[in-house]
Specification:
single chain; 13 strands; alpha/beta; TIM Barrel; 37% helix
């Protein structure tokens, strides 16, 4: 480690409202409670464990369609629980927030299939109910199966989805930041005036994709605009993230390449007039630990026996848009996750590299895979923080909820002893806990331009 100041490590628990996610088959491992995903008691337990470990947030992935690329259909996905079935994660958050006080909640919402007026209302409601602890992972969606389920013949082309997304963000920013002025809500019981009518405004928008005239249905919530997350890996996705994201999910690249990706996005954000210090970078990670190195390796070996190869191929066929059950020809354009495609097809070793994805260990697209004692894990986490210039980690499920208990009980104290992990939550809403500068979005963010 160098002599530079140590950054406080941010940690999120990464989930979907599904029995299987990312490492398909681990729902079958001894001790896993993943099959309780339909129980609200289970999710409240997850929230309490995360808050006990001072996690920044519980972050939910979501999707609108079944992965049906592998072998030309969804059968393997259905049989192996490859992020299927998938319940709505948004409905969990009010109850989980009621059982906690500080931990944040992130939810993925696809803007391609929902009008911005409705989504803005939903997130304002969530921000009220959580007392300002909600964030939105902005996705444009890539599954043709989801598009068909929504009545479309096929999904929009990759870059076209991001063009739509830029306009979508403009609309929701206008609703969240510009419809209600500060001080418009007076709650004057004596005169029976709830809000100042002259300070609440109709939003008007006429654009290529959206036309809107309406007053935002919700009074200003603690954050107004929720904390904005994004995970685009393509060139167009990175440009979108540099413009809009406050937190960016990273995955797939080794440390040196990750550092370069972080530098590139920060420079792009600065060129757009944003303060790059107002963007945090969070690396996807699988972390397996125990009291000793041997105990951690034993747990890793046990879990590896439950990772399902066919389920993994079905999942990554869906991610990449390429059927991994057959020999691949030359790369062709598709609507899959372009970052995944980029990682898996480099160096002309496509089939071998793609098939490596079934292994429960470090691999292309999953370099941040840590197994060891608390000291060894803490060493490697600090190495990633410094060498990759990231701000924290998003923890994949690996035999839940024991993986969260192990992290909270074993690794957190080690990180705290090193002065790189908080010993208490900051007060305030989620944005203030992350950045320490108030609940409202930073003045350099494009959303701030719509404040009255």
């Amino acid at each position: 480690m160098t002599g530079q100041a140590k950054k406080e490590i941010s940690v999120n628990a990464f989930f979907s409202n599904s029995p299987g996610q990312n490492w398909i088959g681990l729902w079958s491992a001894p001790g896993s409670e993943a099959l309780r995903y339909t129980s609200l008691d289970y999710w409240i337990k997850i929230a309490e464990i995360a808050e006990g470990g001072l996690f920044d947030s519980i972050f939910f992935a979501d999707t609108n369609g079944v992965y049906d690329v592998y072998q030309g259909g969804p059968r393997a996905t259905i049989e192996r629980a490859a992020m299927f079935p998938m319940n709505d994660p948004l409905l969990l958050i009010p109850s989980m927030s009621h059982a906690t006080k500080h931990v944040g909640f992130g939810v993925t919402a696809n803007l391609t299939f929902e009008q911005p007026y409705l989504l803005a209302r939903r997130f304002s409601t969530l921000d009220h109910l959580t007392n300002g602890r909600v964030s939105w992972n902005v996705v444009t969606g890539f599954q043709d199966s989801a598009a068909r389920a929504m009545g479309m013949e096929t999904n929009l082309a990759h870059d076209e989805r991001y063009d739509l997304a830029d306009e979508y963000m403009e609309v929701v920013y206008k609703l969240w930041e510009g419809s209600w002025e500060d001080g418009s809500v007076v709650r004057d019981a004596a005169n029976r005036i709830f809000a100042r009518g002259d300070m609440v405004h109709e939003v008007r928008h006429e654009g290529k994709h959206f036309n809107l005239r309406g007053v935002h249905m919700c009074e200003p919530s603690p954050q107004r605009t929720p904390v904005i997350y994004q995970a685009g890996g393509s060139e167009r996705g990175r440009a979108f993230a540099a413009k809009h994201a406050e937190c960016i999910f990273l995955s797939g690249l080794p440390k040196a390449q990750t550092r370069e990706r972080v530098r590139e996005i920060r420079e792009s954000a600065r060129a757009m007039g944003r303060d790059p210090t107002q963007i945090k970078f969070v690396m996807m990670a699988t972390i397996i630990t125990g009291l000793t190195s041997a105990e951690a390796r034993d747990r890793h070996e046990m879990l590896s026996r439950h990772v399902d190869a066919e389920g993994m191929l079905a999942l990554y066929s869906g991610f990449s848009g390429m059927d991994l059950s057959r020999q691949l020809g030359p790369r062709v354009g598709n609507n899959g996750m372009q970052g995944i495609v980029e990682y898996l097809l480099k160096e002309d070793k496509s089939l071998d590299r793609l098939r490596d994805i079934v292994k429960f260990g470090p691999q292309v697209g999953r370099e941040c895979f840590l197994v060891g004692s608390p000291v060894e894990i803490a060493d490697e986490m600090q190495s990633w923080m410094e060498e990759a210039d990231i701000d924290g980690f998003n923890l994949h499920r690996s035999g839940e909820p024991q993986h969260l208990v192990d992290f909270a009980d074993l690794i957190v104290p080690e990180l705290q002893n090193r002065g790189v992990y908080k010993t208490a939550y900051r007060e305030g809403a989620f944005r203030e806990k992350l950045f320490g500068a108030g609940n409202r979005i930073h003045s350099g963010h494009p959303a701030a331009a719509y404040r009255r």
